[in-house]
Amino acid sequence: MTARDRFRGGLPRLALPRHSLRARLMLWNMAILALLMGVLGLVTRTLVRSLMIASVDRELLRRTQWLATLPPPPPGMAMPHGPPPPAPGPGGRPWERERGPAREGGKAAPFAGQWPFRVLDRQGRVLFPLEETQPYDQAAFHEAMQGQIFLSTIVQEDTPLRVISRRFPERGPTQGVWQEVYPLTEVHRALSGLGRALLALVPLALLFAAMGGALLTQRVLQPVRRMAQAAGRIGAEDLSRRLPVSGKDEFAELGATFNDMLQRLEAAFHAQARLVEQQRRFTADASHELRTPLAVIKANTSLCLEGCPTPEEYRQSLIDIDRAAGSMTRLVMDLLLLARSDAGRLAQDRIPLPIGEVLQHAIASVPRHGGAAVRLHLPEVPPCVVGNEDELVRLFTNLLENALHYTPADGQVTLTAAREGDAVHIAVADTGPGIPAEHLPHLGERFYRVDASRSRAEGGFGLGLSICKSIAAAHGGRLSFESTLGHGTTVHVWLPGAGPE
Prior knowledge:
Blueprint: H1 3-6, H2 21-63, E1 103-104, E2 107-108, E3 118-120, E4 126-128, H3 138-145, E5 150-156, E6 159-168, E7 176-183, H4 185-220, H5 222-232, H6 250-306, H7 311-342, E8 351-354, H8 355-365, E9 373-377, E10 384-387, H9 389-405, E11 412-420, E12 423-430, H10 464-474, E13 478-484, E14 488-498
Parallel strand pairs: 9-11
Antiparallel strand pairs: 1-2, 3-4, 3-7, 5-6, 6-7, 8-10, 10-14, 11-12, 12-14, 13-14
Helix pairs in contact: 2-4, 6-7, 7-10, 8-9, 9-10
């Protein structure tokens, strides 16, 4: 399923693709919300229970507060049959009143309810009610005997009870322990109701969260949908399109990054297209250049094999074959040098070289046969360049041959060199016919010739300037061309200098 299918549609729907980003976001949102609601429910229930238990504890403490007001009994007086009533009468002494629990119409006091208080002696025996034999909480009895007001929770007859254990009197000799209970039935009933309410709210909250999450993710992922649709319309033949970018959020950053990638891809595709076109033209031109000497060789060998040439004709055929083979050899050597340049294998062994010596070697390598004069102008201290000597000599030999070839016999070719900052500038100027301005940007392209003044009949394959540009670039330098019709052409070469300026 494509990104366009995943984001197609108007209103958000809960039936989402299994692995879509929107579905995963919604599921994570609901899972986190369910977890938070579960934790919140537990915390709420625990807090409510603590508050209700605290309220019960305060009520139990209030009910037993009167025990703290009892004075110690007279020496030798004990309470073998039960505690005093909750409050003494006017002018009376609590320890001398009727033994046993407070009564109202023969019944226990109203706060006792279904679970009456119990009075324990110092040994833990139940003094009241008489029908009971065990304390509510034996462990609490021992804690109370140590002087603590002890609160605990027990279960009797499937009923949860909150028990307070308090000794009396709190001053003087201990007479016993008072245990009073408060049923927690209502507390548990309230907590159960709260739990049911929370459980009922969870599905509703998750439903609303799902709907809200669908709306939110639909809105948040709208830029992704637009980017997906725009990306679907972009093809290899039309990389000029760009994704819509708005805002300053992460999606905008993603869109901008994607647009930068598209720009680089577009440049790479154009460069690849130019490279393919250059390779195609290169192959066609190389084939064309090889076809002429091969045709010469074929014609002369056929003549020698089919006829009966005279010795002079036979010798001339061999001369033509040798000239054609030499032409092919030069072409192949030039192509090999360009291939080395494409592979980055030029300028491998670079050393500091005096530019004057390089230019003098180039001048000595060019046969002139009485042609135009060559002038070399160097500063008092010739600068040095860093490079491969053979390749630099080849560079300036090509430039010098090219200049001499199109300079009349009464003209001259001038070579100058000077230091310019970190580079060395070399200029090769001729007084030839010049080159039209529209051809200058194409000089240095492989097999490129200026038809007006650089015809194939005059020799060369159109690779000389290409080789010069490749050698200069491999050395970290560059070439530029300047020409005026009728006044000549100047080739400027910049190479990295060696040593201080």
